[in-house]
Design a protein that fits this description.
Blueprint lengths: L4 H25 L3 H21 L3 H20 L5 H21 L8 H6 L10 H7 L2 H5 L1 H18 L1 H9 L1 H6 L4 H23 L4 H13 L5 H26 L3 H26 L1
């Protein structure tokens, strides 16, 4: 089944959508869209480190994205304006990453694939590969990394859903309920770093924030509960992946941007229908 590249791409994209959807809801509720963008941009620097040290790209991107997110969290409470801080760190880390990549000798790298994704080249390891390569097969198996990282993100959010929701709605209520909002923000930061790392192959660092925000924003007007919003966002994300890949195949367009374009189209249509419904009421 996984011998077909479109099947591998679809499975990988749906895995990212299922991980990004519930996390994207918290990004929308907390107005952290630019925070996610800065974390994603930092992943390019992590990719450069990973290639230089000959380690997993996933590990390097996740580590640097996590450091970036924690740095922003640490500095934001010390007199720095959040939007200014995010602007400086996002663009400087992206620039440093691109410069660092240019210094790598003897390493061939397709920057466009990391910037805009290369979902059609997602790899899959068979049982024979695992028997031959052992644990090394995990570093070569994009599908395993994407679904493993996505499952970890979903598990973190399910584990902390209620405390995360309470601290998002009202920090004072969270403290009175015995919940530490700082710890919950740390969980979100960790989930965001993992999502950025697994989504690089699918949509690239420049479009990761779009996959976090657009499906969640599109689902907001359709849901009556936070849980429903997360589920609807996951469906919208999955539909965007499937339709975007089919559109890329038919019209010969880039796969990652095509996926985001479909998500943006669904956001526009759903909001237009919502406004018309309110007008009739």
């Amino acid at each position: 089944m996984f011998d077909d590249f479109m099947t591998r791409a679809t499975v990988a994209g749906v895995g990212v959508a299922f991980a990004a959807a519930p996390l994207g809801c918290f990004v929308v509720w907390r107005r952290m869209a630019y925070f996610g963008d800065a974390t994603a941009h930092a992943a390019i620097l992590g990719i450069a480190f990973a290639l230089a040290l000959d380690i997993s790209v996933f590990a390097g991107a996740a580590a640097v994205a996590l450091v970036m997110a924690m740095t922003v969290t640490f500095l934001s409470g010390r007199g720095y304006a959040m939007d200014t801080l995010l602007g400086v760190l996002a663009h400087s880390s992206l620039a440093l990453g691109l410069v660092a990549v240019s210094f790598l000798s003897g390493v061939r790298i397709d920057l466009m694939a990391y910037l805009f994704g290369d979902i059609l080249s997602v790899s899959h390891c068979s049982f024979e590969d695992f028997r031959a390569l052992g644990w090394e097969a995990f570093s070569r198996c994009d599908l395993g990394i994407i679904w493993g990282g996505g499952a970890l993100v979903v598990a973190l959010l399910v584990w902390r859903w209620r405390p995360l929701l309470t601290s998002t709605l009202n920090e004072e209520l969270a403290y009175s309920s015995g919940i530490d909002p700082k710890f919950e923000k740390l969980i979100l930061t960790l989930a965001l770093a993992i999502t950025v790392a697994v989504a690089i192959k699918v949509v690239g660092v420049l479009l990761i924030a779009a996959m976090l925000v657009i499906p969640a924003a599109a689902a907001r007007g359709l849901a009556r509960t936070p849980e429903a919003m997360a589920l609807i966002a996951a469906v919208i994300g999955a539909v965007s992946v499937i339709a975007g890949l089919q559109g890329a195949l038919i019209f010969d367009t880039p796969a990652g941007p095509s996926i985001v374009s479909v998500a943006a189209f669904l956001f526009a249509v759903l909001n237009l229908l919502g406004w018309r419904g309110q007008g009739r009421a």
